[in-house]
Amino acid sequence: MKQLSNLDRVLDAAMELTLEQQEMLVQILKNRIIESRRDEIASDAAASIAEFQAGRLKVHTASEAIQELREYLNNPSAADV
Fold first, then answer.
1. Residue 25 class from Cβ within 10 Å (0-12 exposed, 13-18 middle, 19+ buried)?
2. 49: in domain
3. How does pLDDT run across 24-39, given as a tens digit for each residue?
């Protein structure tokens, strides 16, 4: 018998739950994903603020940022990394 992946085992276990429990599981997972995304955004923001305060970020006007984005979208391989 082929070994089941973790996801397959979780899905099999979830299918053994009642419909109400499955709905609760889905809601719990959605809430945890949202919270993880919030934590990720907060961490990225904190890192960006630290970079800015350390003077390692170039200040742009909105027009400059839009122009730079357009240039990147038109030629992503030429972008500075």
1. middle
2. yes
3. 999 999 999 999 999 9
